[in-house]
Amino acid sequence: MADDGVYKSQFATGTSNGGLTAHPGGDRWRWESRIFAGACDEAAPDERPVYGALNYRREAFGAAPRFGSSYFRLTPETLTRATFCYPDSSAEPSAFGIADRCALVELAEAADTDPLDGHIEAQVHGPVRFDRDVEALVLDPSYRGTSVEHEAECLPCPVEWHPGFRLSIADLRRHPHYRGEAYVDLGAAIAPGDWLTPRVIGDAPRTGRYALQDLKKVWHCVARFGRLSGC
């Protein structure tokens, strides 16, 4: 990111904390084709929108922690080139909006959904530059003093910290039905002590022993039940 200076979509990076379907004929490609009436079908990867969420609840943890513990907070000016939908584009939404004509907050607040699923998706059109369009990168405090903090400081935007995610293994075991007993066991297996943090989950793939999609389910448990009120 520091080298490129811009935030890239999955079509350009090939990576995601969601489904890896950003390719011609894939689910992400199909969803964009539907939402934008085919306007992006032949677009180059760097011409496609990038995704985020509208933080209508003004959460310190960001608008959509389902997708990760850290986030970029964009400037108000980016609203003029953003479109929105509810629910998420993966759910075939029929409700859309733009910044000055949008009733999606009322829909989201009225819905009875899992807290990790209640986000209003945003699609930002045009480049998102770190030196122009980003107010701050907001990190989880488990990354203090790590290479993540060091590399974040190479970006041309401020670095801030939210209160943090941390879930004890004892608390994890109280929620076996949330994502499944297998992911409770996996969380216990990767924890070096009695706690799970974003850093612990982020380090796990480097061992080569765990499937990324399985670790994502462990993260969902931490994101759902491990929010700290202060740090």
From TrEMBL:
Full protein name: DUF3626 domain-containing protein
Pfam families: DUF3626
InterPro entries per record: DUF3626
